[in-house]
Amino acid sequence: MLMTKHLLSFFAFLFIGFSACVPARKYEEVNGRIAGYQADSEAAQAKAREVQSMLDEQAVRLEELERNNKRLERDTLVMGNSLRTMQRQYDKINDLNDELLEKYNKLLAGGDSENRKLLTDLEALRLDLQNKEDSIARSSKALAQREAALADLRAELELKDQAMKDLKARVSRALTAYEGKGLTVEQRDGRLYVSMENKLLFPSGSAMVDENGRKALVDLAKAIEGDKDISILVEAHTDTDKFLPGSRFQDNWELSVERATSVVRILQENSRIDPQRITAAGRSEYLPLDPQDKSKNRRIEVILSPDLRGLFGLVAQ
Q1: How far apart are CA 100 and CA 107, in angstroms?
Q2: Which one, of 45, 56, 59, 58, lies nearest residue 283 by Cα?
């Protein structure tokens, strides 16, 4: 402990001596750059929070879509049972019609008093028959519309799911060289997650991507640049280690934002990806994969999400 205090005093003395040698103008330039970095970091953090809110909203809408899909299936089953019940009733109506014909024949052969009663019964039966036929027709039409809407929704869901499977296969092929080196490709919740440990991309405490990591990101960019209806969210995650006074980064928020931004720049500069489709987000230390293993928490996640607006239109019909 005593040795540590001496070392700190020595470094402080060196720092003061060095600072005294730095011209005031250089010192002001450095301060200006730091202020600029801090302003960029704060703006990026605000953008990240906004994007996360939009992503959470999209996840809620996706859950709502799945619930509506289940409701459509349940309603279709109920309506199918109802239609079968009505079909049985229709068979009874045919029997009723036969009864009407029989009574009509009796009407022709009976007296006036009996004829009036038979006419009244005949009219009542006719109206009942008409009402039941109308009800069956309406139910059949509604069921047909429900089944058509459900078929369209299922077809669209299958197309989206197949598109994500094809995208996963293409991305996996493009990144085969990095398997077992801190990179995984996983499809879940209707999205594709490309997760890269920091050891593949960044030196410790740095936001500058090394050469090997840059090659992996360029390969990824080339694999996804043709998917025009896929949104791309780059999330940077850190561990819980704190920064010492005088470090380049104020905290893990700032480090994560700069790392996400560095990855986005490489993806954009080395492909035809529309900048409107891509977002950088710093998540700091607050979404760990394993609280007991810091190395797993230091990562970049590139999240690829399909455009669901067409599905929401089908559910709203």
Answers
A1: 10
A2: 45
Cα separation, 220 vs 210, whole angstroms: 15
**Is residue 220 a contact partner of residue 173, using CB atoms and an 8 Å limit?**
no
Query: What token pair was written down for 181?
Result: 């080196």
Residues β-bridged to residue 278: 232
* Cβ neighbours around 172 below 10 Å, total: 16
What residues pair up with 109 in beta bridges, in sequence order? none
Which strands form 183-188's sheet, in the order they lie side by side?
183-188, 191-197, 299-306, 230-237, 278-284
Q: For residue 283, which of 241, 250, 238 has the smallest C-alpha distance? A: 238
Q: What is the pTM of this model?
A: 0.56
Return the C-alpha torsion angle 225, 228, 229, 234, nearest 10: 30
Nearest to 209 by CA among 175, 180, 236, 174: 236
Mapped onto helix, strand or coil, the DSSP state of residue 273 is coil
Query: Two tokens at 274?
Result: 């529309």
Per-residue confidence in pLDDT tens, the chain, 317 aa: 444 444 445 444 444 454 444 466 766 776 777 777 677 777 777 776 777 777 777 777 777 777 777 777 777 777 777 777 777 777 777 777 777 767 666 665 665 666 677 677 777 877 787 787 777 877 777 777 777 767 777 777 787 788 888 889 999 999 999 888 889 999 988 899 999 999 899 988 899 999 999 999 999 999 999 988 899 999 999 999 998 888 899 999 999 999 999 999 999 999 999 999 999 999 999 999 998 888 889 999 999 998 766 554 545 55
In 145-275, the DSSP E strands lie at: 183-188, 191-197, 230-237
Q: Cβ of 40: how many Cβ atoms within 10 Å?
A: 14
Distance CA 106, CA 192 (A): 76
